[in-house]
Amino acid sequence: MTSAPPSTTLFNDALMTDPYGTYARLREAGPVHRTTTPDGAPVWVVTRYEDVRAALTDPRLSLNKANTHTTGRYQSSMPPELDAHLLNMDPPDHTRLRRLVSKAFTARRIEGLRQRVQAHADRLLDAITERPADLMHSLANPLPMEVICELLGIPAQDRRDFHAWTHSVLGPAEDAAVESRAAMREMHRYLTGVIAAKRNKPADDLLTAMIEARDERDGLSEPELLAMAFLLLFTGYTSSVNLIGNATLALLLHPAVMTSVRAGRTPVRAVLEETLRWNAPVTLGVRRFALEDITIGGITIPTGSRVWVSLASANRDAAQFTDPDCFQPERASAHLDFGHGIHYCLGAPLARLEAEVALTALLARFPCLRLAIPTDELEWLPSFHHRGLKKLPVIW
């Protein structure tokens, strides 16, 4: 027997300033909550670990926005010309497209990027001279942009534009949908030109490889090629930036852990996995749409409803993690920040590699690193979907 769902006002200043306290209260109140996005669109939010994990693999929850019965503009979709991507597809289209694109993200290929990532990180750290230094500006933001643009084959002189466009896409203000779509269309126009140029002059990069897949039988269609190029560029940047920033902050807030890492007792990878759980760079999973009435935790979600799973909430669920609010890199990791199942993030190995190289190089370069401001003065990006710092001022 199902019960009426709790209804709550979720997407407000309280979620921005205290996301984990807010989600803790929601988990206590119930497993699923009916609320609205900032532009008034109805949405259902799943908050408990077991329910979130199950929802991530439930075939009754579609990623294809054609299955929605709701309205609302708040970052609900990309422009039509960028719809043909993995985050808007279900099998069998998703299966075919992921098979083609995943060839570029094998563990071997990503590990082969380590020296190039290291060179970028060393160059960025060499350039840090000011005190205090903002590590978001000096390291966390530019490193992933350099790496993903190099991987795709985007010319160096055009990368500043991509940073500006990405910032626009992430904006959560009431008029964000208009600004976000404008930035996406700028990206679309630019990528169309780059792809045309690479057709005439192929290179050893991911875009060229995707073009070759486009021209093969059963390969990428032209809309899929453009949409995937955009998605890889955008997602390959955002998660890595926030992971580097959040992991660095976690070490700064936990000096004993930092000492253990420096001494070689705690692996940097363990710090990253705990950061992904404790202060998740991605707080909400990709929106899904109910293909039929679905019951989660005794709550029935009607057909066509938009559903968001809270990864940040699931990762702090005491039913799954002992002392979930404590940062403990030694714990066994079972976080969901890169997703679960067939939609598990393709770029996860790249994000881990970039963050591992960045943190290792940073700790080696600055042995007395510490925060330059009180923790209550740290500012977070105004986003309900991502958790990342505006600035991270440090001294050493």
Structural class by helix and strand composition:
alpha+beta
CATH class: Mainly Alpha
Shape: globular
Main sheet makeup:
5 strands, mixed
Protein name: Cytochrome
Family: Belongs to the cytochrome P450 family.
InterPro entries: Cyt_P450, Cyt_P450_B, Cyt_P450_CS, Cyt_P450_sf
Organism: Streptomyces fodineus
What would your notes on this structure say?
Belongs to the cytochrome P450 family. Keywords: Heme, Iron, Metal-binding, Monooxygenase, Oxidoreductase. With 396 residues, the chain is α+β, with helices and mostly antiparallel strands. The mean pLDDT is 87. It is built from 16 helices and 10 strands. Helix 8 (142-152) runs antiparallel to helix 12 (222-253) and helix 11 packs antiparallel against helix 12 (222-253). It has a single domain, classed as Orthogonal Bundle (Cytochrome p450), CATH 1.10.630.10.
